[in-house]
Amino acid sequence: MIRVSGLRKTYGDFAAVVDSSFEVETGEIFGVVGPNGAGKTTTLKMLAGLIEPTAGSAEVAGFDAQNAEMRHRLGFLPEESPLYQDMTPTSYLTFFADLYDVPRSVANERIAETLDRLDLEYRDRRIGDMSKGMKRKVAIARSLINDPDVLIYDEPASGLDPLTTNSVLEFTRELRDDDKTVIFSAHNLYHVESVCDRIIIMNEGRIIARGTVEAIREEYGETTYHVFSDIDLPETDPTSDGRHRAVVDSMDAVEGLQDAAAAAGGSVVDIRTHEPSLEELFLDLTGRQMAGPRTAAATAPAGGRDADTAADTAVEPEEPR
Ligand SMILES: Nc1ncnc2c1ncn2[C@@H]1O[C@H](COP(=O)(O)OP(=O)(O)OP(=O)(O)O)[C@@H](O)[C@H]1O
User: Fold this and answer.
1) Which regions in the chain score pLDDT beneath 70?
2) pLDDT at position 110, please?
3) Which pLDDT score is estimated for 320?
């Protein structure tokens, strides 16, 4: 659905995007991740046909991104989406439906259905009097008004309260079921991990890692094992609950600790694997923290885990030998 080949954008001597190539399949949610200034928005705008590439090509829904026809197949949600404050959601969306020549009966049905799915109740309230979350939902509904094949969402859920964040992320995930293809950029790596099928990580204009978060974790991350014993060993440090903990990076080392504990008359009582979080991988790969956007809210949806909390999984300790 999207084919990007050798894409490059320079401003004078400065290269904002360098030799970027990737493909996105129909129905995929594809994340574009990177620190401030990495070239994410420039990439998204080239895909949306808003910026002309210096070199390379971007094909969206079978059209060159610069081809005006492509825009009929695209819904673009910029990071900041100014809305007409004096209009209501219904009049605003009808106005955009008219711009896309959507027949009025189709538009009415589409608007009602999309606002239902987004759970937006106040359809005849002045947009200027609505909350930030409601306005974001109106902007998301606008991105779908022409029933596009491809959606480009720049920070769709940033700066929203946790409930609205949850609802926007869920809505984005569900677009996959309608065979929509989504390019998704966000600073909150929890948002990225919970929504995207595959991602690219960009740094200083270049793609430095690509794949599923799981594959990137396997390629660049290192699993460590936190081994707890009921006896003090040379490798362990005391914990607040009276146990002793060592952090090692292989199962061989875990077994070595089990043997050492048994030889000293004790045992290993718990082993936990520690998977690096996307945040930790990101820091390793770019050497930089993921800085927040202008309106960042580091919220994880209710029940979700924090972006900077790595996954800890218990492993059954073996019987001491
Ligand atoms: N019109 C322009 N003229 C000159 N430099 C530009 C222009 N637009 C972007 N840049 C530069 O290109 C680089 C990439 O910008 P871009 O907005 O794509 O980064 P980003 O990854 O989206 O960053 P952020 O996360 O801060 O939004 C930045 O260094 C930016 O200053």
Assistant:
1) 289-321
2) 95
3) 42
Name the CA radius of gyration of the chain, rounded: 24
**Closest of 129, 131, 128 to residue 119, by C-alpha:** 131
| CA dist., res. 144 & res. 70, Å (int) | 14
Q: What is the pLDDT of residue 314?
A: 53
Tell me the per-residue pLDDT of 146-160, one tens digit each, with 9 for 90 and over.
999 999 999 998 888
Task: Report which protein residue has its CA nearest ligand 1's atom 26.
Answer: 36
Residue 226's DSSP bridge partners are: 247, 272
**Ligand 1 centroid, distance to 189 Cα (angstroms):** 20
d(CA 256, CA 39): 47
**Ligand 1 neighbours by CB, cut-off 6 Å:** 11, 14, 16, 34, 36-42
Q: Which atom of ligand 1 is nearest to the CA of 79?
A: 27
In the sheet where 244-248 sits, what is the strand order?
237-238, 244-248, 224-229, 268-275, 311-315
What's the rounded Cα separation, in Å, for the pair 138 and 122? Answer: 10
Q: Which residue carries 């440090």 as its tokens?
A: 237
Q: Which domains does the chain have, with CATH numbers?
A: 2-217 (3.40.50.300), 223-275+291-315 (no CATH)
Residue type, 154: D
Q: How high is the pLDDT of residue 292?
A: 58
Q: Is beta strand 181-185 parallel, antiparallel or unpaired with respect to 198-203?
A: unpaired
Return the pLDDT at 35.
87
